[in-house]
Specification:
The chain is of the alpha+beta class. Among the domains are: 535-625, no CATH class; 649-772, Jelly Rolls, CATH 2.60.120.260. The protein is built from 21 helices and 36 strands. The strands form seven sheets. Strands 16, 17, 18, 19, 20, 21, 22, 23 and 24 form a nine-stranded mixed β-sheet that branches. The protein has a seven-stranded antiparallel β-sheet with strand order 2-7-8-9-15-11-12, with no helix packed on it. A six-stranded mixed β-sheet has the order 1-5-6-10-14-13, with no helix packed on it. The chain is globular, with a radius of gyration of 27 Å. It starts with 7 loop residues before the first helix and ends with a strand. The relative contact order is 0.09.
Length: 774
């Protein structure tokens, strides 16, 4: 077993108490404390490829943004007149300012690769503005976050000063502000990147000022108070303090970093326990990246083992075939992704952060397994989530059959996945080549030129992943022998390597072809990597499969994105082998055809370039015998699913942070919780919750989900000021979910306001939906 996502059936029975594969264990044992480091991207030049196109589109977007508009709220906080209006979307909400941090990191990554004098000049002007704003704040604070106080938006610094005094109020938010520490971290991380990657020396004192300010806020708090704060999403603030310690040597920053461990999440991981189900996924991944960085600067092996266990758990038990994870931003029950094929799977931020974590773990034990995973995510999720023509981004990558991708807009979105997307597509050159003290590793097959200071120059030419031919030519050599390790993908049965047109019996170790020789200019290494077709079953749905051709995840191309897809999800007949359901199309690499159980023919092609299409990645399969017995049940279920999707106007996953923000929920009492994997919100007697639901012209149905065994309760339901029902939960006793429909009067309004009031006992709501009336 080398690669958990490619060997799910083995993982199902394998222990994960120690998550390293045998190859990884060998690598760690033989290399000891010697770490591999990525070759700085300034030594790497990309050649024409989808990766170069993505970076070019990203650069255009970075240049199109006005940093002064991103700094609008920063100026207001410092009592200065903003020179430009604020952007819309999330930059007009209380999380404002986070985009500036992502923008600085993305710009710094781009400068680190190419120098880019135009972006360098923009970044320098931005840092000058930030230094001026920070000076006006007088205490090191620098941020654009806001919070509502008495109906007015005030600077988020108010929250930090309340925390300093011990006034800590936690819900989804921190003292009424949406993730203020998360936003502060993005700014701090962006400044650290500007210093480290772009070489902008003025960035470090600004970063130290922010670090000092937040440290003074929390250093006077008890551990219990600090853990309460850390229960709210706080990004990678631990990682940034570990970075500050590494950059400055100031022991104070290491002390702060160690205090920022969120014990409720980290301690079970240290013990080797998977308690991720129900947790907001991207809240947790940066915490673990912080642990990995803390291990690197502090040396605690428990932190390293927790990071490895988390990585193995997420990739082996909580991920989809494209390498992404989460549904509606949350981890589900392990190995039950078959219950979560929706339009809200695979948040892009999660994959961005899992790639960051993978880089840390690879550096400790350079094994090709890590980059088998890295490549899968980079190609099938990251390339898929950016339109290379506009440079805009997808938040969720839907796994539901017939779903399409929904993209951000240049000035009206600024979601978290826009910010991480700007970074993701600025770093396609930063992980191709790695080095330790004796070896140069080639981990990704991306057309590029490598020019190292020691005199080694390589030229990599390939159309990979379109085909499996890769040529690496030595164009200049150093005076000493150099070991070259080239990744041999785990799925590439029959892969071969040649040197100067002759077969090479290269040593294979830790998933690499290893060649140790004194190179000569003109030496040419040729790889032949068969693009093997294979299937992978979906955890939790053993008869449902996805297909891959080489490194590419395949999908059925169902329809243009601007057309509805109302047909049943394509299902396939199989005999002995799931991959046998697909037939290769001659002279068209990675192109297959399949006929579904209803006789419909489908093109099965690479998923990532289907930017404007409706797709199906996972396919339910039947044997001829099972299809005869299950046909009627399957078609009825698909008809019900299609009807529900057609009639659904809005879905409110009550009890989850982002959906509650999106639906404007306010509550006078009660709390969120989780039961049988469903988030919910309770309403004690006398408590009221109000929120908005989208409508279409005409009559509708309000559908609320309850638990059948919840009895002895009463709740009033009011819509747009009119009482719709009093739900009395007295006699119904069922150990299952209960969906109750309430008719709504016709309207021409785009939304309705729903108010729920607890009248007796504690009513609990598990979901709300508006549907077109039948």
């Amino acid at each position: 077993m080398r690669y958990c996502l490619a060997r799910r059936t083995l993982l199902a029975s394998a222990s994960l108490l120690f998550p390293l594969s045998p190859a990884m264990l060998r690598a760690a044992a033989t290399r000891g404390s010697q770490r591999a480091e990525p070759v700085p991207s300034r030594h790497v030049t990309l050649k024409p490829s989808p990766y170069a196109d993505a970076m070019a589109a990203n650069r255009r977007y970075l240049l199109s943004l006005d940093p002064q508009r991103l700094l609008h709220n920063f100026y207001l906080s410092a009592g200065l007149e903003p020179p430009a209006p604020v952007y819309r979307g999330w930059e007009s909400e209380s999380i404002a300012g986070h985009t500036m941090g992502h923008w600085m990191s993305a710009v710094s990554l781009t400068i680190a690769n190419s120098g880019d004098p135009e972006l360098t000049a923009v970044l320098d002007r931005t840092l000058t503005s930030m230094r001026r704003i920070q000076s006006a704040e007088k205490d090191g604070y620098l941020g654009g976050m806001t919070v509502m106080r008495e109906g007015q938006s005030v600077p988020g610094k108010t929250v930090f000063e309340e925390i300093r005094r011990g006034d800590i109020r936690v819900t989804w938010e921190l003292n009424g502000a949406w993730v203020p520490i998360y936003a502060l971290h993005k700014i701090l991380a962006g400044l650290i990147d500007a210093y480290q990657l772009a070489g902008r020396k003025p960035a470090l004192p600004i970063a130290v000022g922010i670090g000092d300010y937040f440290a003074t806020v929390i250093e006077g708090l008890s551990d219990d108070q600090l853990q309460k704060i850390l229960s709210v999403e706080h990004g990678g603030i631990l990682e940034s303090y570990a970075d500050l310690y590494a950059l400055t040597g100031t022991a104070r920053w290491l002390d702060v970093a160690r205090r920022l461990r969120h014990h409720a999440v980290v301690d079970p991981l240290v013990r080797g326990e998977d308690r991720l189900a129900g947790l907001h996924a991207n809240t947790q991944i940066p915490k673990i990246i912080g642990l990995a960085r803390l291990h690197e600067v502090g040396g605690n092996m428990a932190d390293a083992n927790a990071a490895r266990f988390f990585h193995a758990t997420v990739t082996g038990h909580h991920s989809y075939v494209i390498g992404g994870n989460s549904e509606r931003e949350h981890f589900g029950q392990p190995d039950r992704q078959g219950e979560q094929l929706t339009t809200a799977t695979c948040e892009a931020c999660n994959s961005y952060n899992m790639l960051k974590l993978t880089r840390h773990l690879y550096g400790w034990s350079p094994s090709a397994d890590w980059f088998d995973l890295y490549e899968r995510i980079q190609i099938n999720h990251i390339l898929a989530h950016q339109r290379p023509d506009t440079g805009q981004f997808v938040y969720f990558m839907p796994m539901e059959a017939g779903a399409k991708r929904d993209y951000s807009t240049p000035e009206d979105s600024f979601w978290c996945c826009v910010g991480s997307g700007m970074e993701s597509h600025a770093k396609h050159a930063d992980s191709i080549y790695w080095r330790d003290g004796s070896t140069l590793f080639v981990n990704l097959f991306i057309p590029s030129t490598l020019d190292l200071p020691d005199g080694l120059r390589l030229d990599m030419n390939t159309r990979y992943p379109q085909d499996g031919q890769v040529t690496i030519t030595v164009t200049h050599t150093p005076r000493r022998a150099t070991a070259l390790a080239i990744r041999r993908p785990v799925w590439a049965d029959g892969a071969a390597i040649m040197l100067n047109d002759r077969p090479l019996a290269a040593q294979q170790q830790d998933g690499y072809w290893r060649i140790d020789r004194r190179w000569r200019a003109g030496d040419r290494i040729t790889l032949s990597i068969p693009m093997t077709l294979r299937s992978e079953s979906l955890p939790g749905a053993a008869e449902t499969y996805a297909y891959l051709s080489g490194p590419l995840v395949l999908a059925a191309d169902l329809a243009p994105a601007d057309q509805r897809f109302d047909g049943p999800a394509p299902a396939l007949l199989i005999h002995d082998d799931a991959a046998g359901a697909l037939t290769a199309v001659a002279d068209r690499p990675h192109h297959y055809r399949a006929t579904d159980v209803l006789g419909q023919k489908h093109d099965i092609v690479p998923f990532y370039p289907l930017y404007d299409r409706r797709t199906a990645i996972y396919f339910r399969t039947f044997t001829p015998q099972s299809w005869q017995s299950e046909r009627a049940t399957y078609l009825a279920a698909e008809a019900a699913r299609i009807d529900l999707a057609r009639r659904t106007i809005d879905i409110f996953h009550i009890g989850e942070m982002q959906p509650e923000r999106d639906h404007g929920l306010t509550a006078t009492g009660g709390q969120s919780a989780e039961f049988y994997g469903k988030k919910n919100r309770s309403l004690p007697q006398g408590a009221r919750a109000s929120f908005t639901m989208q409508r279409r012209p005409g009559p509708a149905t309000l559908q609320i989900t309850y638990w059948g065994n919840d009895t002895g309760r009463e709740m009033r339901i009011v819509v747009d000021g009119h009482e719709v029902a009093i739900e009395r939960r007295e006699q119904r006793k069922q150990n299952e979910w209960l969906l109750i429909d309430y008719p709504l009067a016709p309207t021409q309004a785009a939304q309705s306001t729903v108010t729920l009031t607890g009248l007796k006992g504690k009513s609990t709501v598990y979901g709300v939906r508006t549907l077109e009336a039948r």
